Structures are given as C-alpha cells and as structure tokens.
Amino acid sequence: MKAPLSVPARCRSPSSGPARAIPEERALAQLAKALAHPARVRIVRFLAERRECFCGDIVDALPLAQSTVSQHLKILKKAGLVQGEIDGPRTCYCLNRSALDRLKLLVSRL
After folding, report:
1. Residue 4 and residue 38: Cα distance in Å, rounded?
2. How distant, in Å, are the alpha carbons of 2, 28, 85, 92 from that of 35?
3. What is the count of structural domains for the chain?
4. Separation between Cα atoms, residue 79 and residue 35, nearest integer Å
5. Dihedral (CA of 60, 61, 63, 67) sign
6. Is the Cβ–Cβ distance between 103 and 41 less than 8 Å?
7. Quick one: average pLDDT of 83-102?
8. Is the pLDDT of residue 17 over 60?
9. How many CB atoms are located within 10 Å of the residue 83 CB?
10. Would the pTM count as exceeding 0.85?
11. In what side-by-side order are the strands of the sheet with 53-54?
C-alpha cells in the first residue's frame, strides 16, 4: 500500500486543510459548470451578439438538434446565465447580462 501524497510545506497555505466552499466559490463553480460544454459556450456567444432570439434561431445557427439546444438552454437557464420568456408557442431567450458580469468578476478574482 502506497503512502498518501503529502503537500510540501512550502506549498501549504494556512487554509490548505479541508475547507468548506465559500458562497463566492460555490457561485463560480455553478457558473463554470454551466459553461463546461462547448455547445453551451457557443450558445452564450450567439446570444451575446443579439438582444434576444428564439430557440429555432439558435438551432439554425448551430449544428445541433432542437432537443439538444433545448437541453443546453435548460442548463444555462438553471445557472441563471440565460433567461427565457414565453411568447405564444415559442420561447424567446436572452443573456442575463448581470449573471455574465458576475461570472467575469468571479473569474477575475481567481
């Protein structure tokens, strides 16, 4: 049985032991997880170039099936990066700019 790896003393910080994630770390992790798929990054970029659009517009722009785009939008909405508003039989999507600004701030603090 191998001995567990230890962290050299010079690499340890006062808080290098097991710690609970602070709310800011949790928020960054949730937003990063939502963007952890290339298709979702493309959807966010697509929405960033427009004020709003319908799911069909995104499907037309990306090489993905409508059901796949809908699933990715659901994940982005759950994380708060995208907002959707029902407009008759369709849903109109847009970026939540404040959530995107929050993500930028959290990443800049790494």
Report:
1. 35
2. 37, 11, 21, 20
3. 1
4. 9
5. negative
6. no
7. 90
8. no
9. 17
10. no
11. 53-54, 90-95, 82-87
